[in-house]
Amino acid sequence: MLPQIHLVRSGRTKLDRAILTEQYRVLSRQIPLMYTLVFLDAMFLGFASYGSVHPRLSVLAPSLLGIAAAVRSIMWVARRGDSMPNLRRIRRYLIGTIVAAAVLSLAFGGWALVLFDQADLARRTCIALYIFIGAVTCCYCLQTFPIAAWLVMACGASPVIFCLVVSGDRFLVGLGVNIILVSAVVLRMFGATHAGFVDVLASRAEMAAGQRRARLAEQRAHQLAYHDPLTGLPNRRALTEYLRRAEPNQFGLMLVDLDRFKSINDVHGHPVGDQLLRAVAGRLNWVVGEGGGSYRLGGDEFAITLPYADGEVDRVRSIAHAIVREVARPFLIDERMHHIGASVGIALYPDDATDADTLMRRADVALYQAKEAGRGCYCAFASQMDAEIRRRSTIEAEMREGLEQGLFYPRYQPIVDLRSGCVTGFELLARWRRDDIEIGPDQFIPIAEECGLLNTLMLDLLDRACAETRDWPVPASIAINISPGQLRDDWLSHKILSVLARTGFPPQRLTVEITENALIVDAEKAHHAIESLKNQGVQLALDDFGTGYASIQHLRMLPFDKIKIDRSFIETLGESTEALRIVRAILGLAETLELPVVAEGIETVEIAQMLRALGCAQGQGYLFGRPMAKQEVEQWLAGGIIPPAAEVLIRRSGP
Hints:
By secondary structure, the protein is α/β, with parallel strands linked by helices. It is about 60% helix and about 15% strand. The chain has 22 helices and 16 strands. It has helices at about 15-50, 55-80, 85-120, 120-140, 145-165, 170-225, 235-245, 260-270, 270-290, 315-330, 355-370, 385-405, 440-450, 455-470, 490-505, 515-535, 550-555, 565-570, 575-595, 605-615, 630-640, 645-655, and strands spanning about 250-260, 295-300, 300-305, 330-335, 335-340, 340-350, 380, 410-415, 425-435, 435-440, 475-480, 510-515, 540-545, 560-565, 595-600, 620. Strands 8-9-11-12-13-14-15-16 form an 8-stranded mixed β-barrel, surrounded by 5 helices. Strands 2-3-1-6-7 form a 5-stranded mixed β-sheet, sandwiched between helices. A two-stranded antiparallel ribbon has the order 4-5. The radius of gyration is 49 Å and the shape is rod-shaped. About 35% of the residues are buried. The model is unreliable at about 1-5 (pLDDT under 50).
């Protein structure tokens, strides 16, 4: 049995649409050739029958059939000049082909049937062969459109074949049977060919779909490889590609680092942080515009590239200023206003660097300087910055080596009771022996904090100090400073308590000093870090009071044991009425809260007298003693010596 053959496909599926399009494309080439063959076949058959039949059958009939074939051929040739029509028109053309195949085949078959009836045996055989050959030829031209091929065979050849079979002549009957068998084989082949044609188109469609999927996957992979999935901005790899491609041109590279983003991310959660990053990306795109590019490098780091022409270098700085200004504006996320800032570092190609790696490094150096300048600003690279970075890098390497070799050691500065003159405790200060020179903490503590060495340094010094001061004859306390960055360490309190337990140092003799800024950066973490220390008896002091942003609420939030007034107010106390008012206000607040006050930076007896008269409980400064080694402190304590300056203070002020 032949497979079921559809008429004209609906075009609803992708395969149907592909088959319709391919049928039209093939038929537009084959049908003009088919009608040419039909025209020639009609002319030859008319010529062969001329003289033996009426002229209407040998001249008029083939002429009409030839004209009809020519008209159809011209119509299909004219369609070749047009672009591929839509599916609706293709279906209309194919339906027209079915109708034309049926009508012309019936006309041709009917004409042949009339000729067959009037011809002798020899001519009947010729007529049958003409008709059969013409029908088979047309079928081959229509093999991609089976319904039309079937109609040609059924309407064109069947009448004559039927006459052969019922003619009664054994020769003609045999010819008719042979033609039927050949026709069956031909039609069977057409069915198989069409099925193969459909399979090829299906395979081609599947292959095209696979290629489309591969292209989409490639585009997606490229998108993922070169774009940040959170913000949609190009990523670090895309920036690297841009820097390598753009090297022949002048452009500015800006590295942008968000200020205070981490605290928002920690307090409000990553979903809010993600929304904030997307909002920042939107503002950066708006500021830079179409002339430049925005990139997200990771975390809260972004980059900007901005080409510029000769004499337009100030445009780069104006964009950097606009970035700082726009990021500083509040962001409304989940009905809450969030305030962050941005620091920007600028490096120019080719003025500052002639290769991508150096340009990135120098932009990073400029960004570092912007942060050092107080954040919320921009800084352009200058040659001297490189030397400063190399100096810091050298110090960092030497610090790591110094920690391993024990070149950092503690020094102790006395804290004196301004009423009695007695030493009540010591502040632990770090010193570094570098190239036989003693270096103070102001030169290496900031670098230690940046490179993550501050915790290690502090715990090492605390371990040595606890071991050195544990058995002093006078149970004086020691105080250590904790930076805001250290309070982010969730295990800080456990590490400190571990040192106390290992050395056997009483927790009541240790005072932890934190600055006001630590309360602003992350008050919740500060509270958790201090709570466990307080539970073990460790004392808590608020350091550098008056220079940060602490409020009475912060003083009540944590159980402080004392307040330390910053030295900037003490140094100008005798000259500035404003400093005097501030110190008097701090002392009044402390008295209300029942907190003792320690004044830092006392260098003259007159300042000490003023503070004593104002009600300040304790003092610290060069007046009473510089930072001392363990042996000097032990001599003091063994002799029960009150600092000479304290004796003078007591004599002048009275007991």
